[in-house]
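Need fresh eyes. Consider my entry:
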Amino acid sequence: MIFGRVKPLDAILATAEKKSLHRSLGAFQLTMLGIGAVIGTGIFVLTAEAAQKAGPGMMLSFVIAGFVCAVAALCYAEMAAMVPVSGSAYTYSYAVMGELIAWMVGWALILEYAIAAGAVSVGWSGYFIGWLNTSFGIKVPLDLVRGPFDGGMINLPAMLIAALVTALLVKGTKESATVNAVLVGVKILALTLFVALTIPVIKTGQFTPFAPLGFAGISGAAASIFFAYVGFDAVSTAAEETKNPQRNMPIGLIGSLAICTIFYLLVAAGVIGTVGAQPVFGSAGEALSPGTPALSQACTAIQEAAVVCSKEALAWTLKSIGYPFVGWLVGAAAIIALPSVILMMMFGQTRIFFVMSRDGLLPELFSRVHPRFHTPHVITILTGIFVTLFAAFFPVGLLADVSNAGTLFAFAAVSIAVLVLRSTDAGRLRPFRTPAIMMTAPLSIIGCAYLFYSLDAKTKLIFVAWAAIGLLVYFTYSRARSHVGRGTIEVHEADSDLPPSSVPPIPGA
């Protein structure tokens, strides 16, 4: 039975009750948390990808992706407030829809975290190479800074940063809250500078044609740009620490997403209005997909003289309009701040693996702890190897899209879980209740399905293949070894639902 083997919610909540947190966060703190968690990688890295798919219409893409995030976040918040334990959407699904769905959600979250870490590594590489060139006149051959799908052979800088972050995670180096706050501040300051310098010199003629590839292009860009909002669930998971969550959670969620969307629109307008954002077409007038050898060749033919050709779109824009030093600063900000995002993504991946291993669905080896560093070193190293390989051979756009596919599946599952639980366990205490649930949850499910449908065929095929592999692993290994399947329901100690690592998750995806 597909909804069988449900992990009792009371057993999961027994863990949460042992680590209840002080309710101290108000609406303002939640809004600031959301802004810090959201603004980051996507806007630095994916602007050029969105321009190639939608042209100036990418401004509408930001609005669409932000709206889907908002309704998904409201559903996510109810589950996070009710089940405030680690495991995210995987744990929620296990409690409501059973083991098979939970396994598929956990399997999809591997795409969200590990492949997203690869995407950020590739994005970091683009800014690092541009910075080397600007600062020291060093030109690295394209074969060594782009993967085979992007007109090169291997992306060595992306491999290097992924390997370094893996080593840090194994060692368990602490990142203080102060350092995190500084890194978030650096990113926001860089984007504020960008907006301040570009908005005053916008030329309205650059916005036409607004949708050169039609609404399908805008939808495709929205599906990619969704990556720029990943991290908003940090607000949802703070529900247990929120004063008056029924009032403050919607303000924090919607407020932070609204501010980030406006910020993103200003940045997009700055790019479009100054240097233009029209797609580059092939010799026969055909639309070219981002991150392909065909686009790379077309960009070479025009001497990379278009923002869609740049691997450091914001820095390139500033240099093009006469602000090379500020462009250098924006590039430096990305180089400094993005590694912390890679760390956060990989930490999230190890946490999901750790919880799945503890439930018996993955080998116990995965939750083994290093005797000296006290970190789950086996799964951290394994995750690091895969992230390094993703970063070495695949373009940022493809990695971001595949990551989005996993995220959208997980968020849709959570939205369904909220609806199911409202019906099957209506009397359960809910510190936060999703407003207008009969409208919000269906909108979230439809929105996630729409963005998933808008991903390109290659990405959807990769997701289906990944899901098929997941089902094979579940039925050949995990099902027989599941603790719930064997009748073992565990309640863990106050802190054992997290990997014993001293590295905290860092906002700013």
